[in-house]
Structures are given as structure tokens and as C-alpha cells.
Specification:
five-stranded mixed sheet; about 25% strand; single chain; alpha+beta; about 190 residues
Amino acid sequence: MTAILYPVATDPEAALLRPIGRASRAREAQVLAGEPVVFVSEPAGPAFATKAAALDAYVGRVEDDRPGGIAALAPEERYCRLAETLAPGARAPTAASPRCEDGRRWSPPPAQAPKTVWRLQVSYWRVGTAERPLSAPQARRARRSEEARALDPAALRAMASQPLRPVAPQQPLDIGLFERRLPESPHIVVPDE
């Protein structure tokens, strides 16, 4: 199986046009950059009103399932994808509340869906010293602090969109799901039926 070779760069545009190099693992990316790196997925380029327009603009960068399009990219080239997001200034739909009337549980859907746009999402190894700090506080920890009350909504949204990091490194599994250790001999693993 071939791994995806993610670009090593300072921002998404540099990842597309002039990356420092390409690496599949953090260790390789750190050697190429010469400093710490962090894996991120960020939007790049302009927003497009339709998916077809975005596919036309990024021929060869993303898979195109239309007739005559590139149906499959090489496995190492799959670091870009198209994502549909809310247009700037568009309001997200409110959550539907259940109401049991006339044999229907849910209220009818909104008459007009919010306006969306298509953007290219680039996954890459960002050099740790580029623009943003390497590790921003996680929302789940920051919300418990006193400083959280002073943060503006944009900062809270930015923290909430960061990928979750583990509290502690995951320990390797030494026994399977349906196995257990004998109480009298903890060094022996037996199947649990």
C-alpha cells in the first residue's frame, strides 16, 4: 500500500505551489523542515459557487467523478479534497426540535437552505514556527479556565475546530478484546468466552 505524501510547507498555498518537500510521516517531515511540524487541513484558494466550477479549477488535484474526469488519482497524490462550507455571512440552520403534531414528529425543513460554497482543503505538514503557534490550547481544557470568559467567539470557534489531541499517549494493546489475564497468573492470557 502506498502512503499519501503530504507537502511540507508554511501555508496551504505554499503546499500547493512550492512545498519544501513531501513526507508521509511526521518524522520525515521534521527532517525536511529542520524544525517541528504539525499536521493540518486548511482551505486554500478561492471559493466556488458550484462543485463543477471547483472541479474545473482543480483538474488533476482532486478526483473528478464526472464523465471524462480523472476518476482516480495516484495514492500518494490524495492530499487535496473539495469541501462544501457555509458561504461568508450565511447563517447556519438552527437545530430542529421535535414536535408531535398531525402524526409527524419533526417540523418541516426550512424553506431555503443556507448558501454554501466549495473550497479546496489541503492537508499538509505545517512548519511549526509558521504564523500560528504549534500548539494552541484545546477547547475542552480552555473552557474550564478563567481566561475562557474573556475570549471572543471567533477565538473559541478556532479552538473548537482544532483536531483533538490525546491527553496521554495511547498505550499499545497487549491483549485482544475477548481475552483476559488469569488472576492467579497475570502473565498468561486466555480467551474469554
